[in-house]
Amino acid sequence: MSEPRDDDLEDQPRRRRPLVVRLLGGFVVLNLLFALVSVGIALYIKFTHPSVGDEESDEVDLVTIFDGVELKSRAAAFRGGSWITMFGGGELDLREATLDPSGATLRVNAIMGGGDVQVPDGWNVELASKAIMGGVGAHRPSATEDPYAPTLRIEARAIMGGFGVTSGD
């Protein structure tokens, strides 16, 4: 029996991997690419947008990326601010803060992270949220129903993450 020659091998059809294996390989590659891009964006935001605000600040700009924050506000006239969290999270406790008489707006964004905003029972909270594979919710069993009470507006977006609004522990 003679060995096959190179030109005989070229005539044979190449065996291809099954479709499922090729699709799975493509999915893995795309997933890794997405993860690398997400981490790159998160690191860029982390190093170009440091957190601003402390316990006495009337406005906060929190950035919790690959870390967390526990801020207990004692602001004299809290007006709101923003909170971005990616691959991290934390807690913003406003129970000892005084709300600005005109109210306040807090914008929170969670991407694969999350947090908890604690508010006093005497505040009204208006929650507007959008979530994709995540969630935003409020659990305040003893919240006020006084229409003249101060109002905190929370605009929340969550992608594979979440935020909660509570009245305490």
Write the layout of secondary structure elements.
Blueprint: H1 6-11, H2 19-48, E1 59-65, E2 68-72, E3 80-86, E4 89-93, E5 104-111, E6 114-118, E7 124-132, E8 135-139, E9 151-159, E10 162-166
Parallel strand pairs: 1-3, 2-4, 3-5, 4-6, 5-9, 6-10, 7-9, 8-10
Tags for this model:
single chain; 169 residues; alpha/beta; five-stranded parallel sheet; 2 helices; elongated
Topology order in helix (H) and strand (E) letters = HHEEEEEEEEEE
Main pleated-sheet profile = 5 strands, parallel
* Largest sheet strand order: 1-3-5-9-7
Uncertain runs are none
Number of helices: 2
**Helix fraction?**
10-25%
Distance between the termini: 83 Å
Number of strands: 10
Q: What is the 3D form? A: elongated
Strand content: 35-45%
Radius of gyration: 25 Å
Coarse structural class: alpha/beta
Average pLDDT confidence is 86
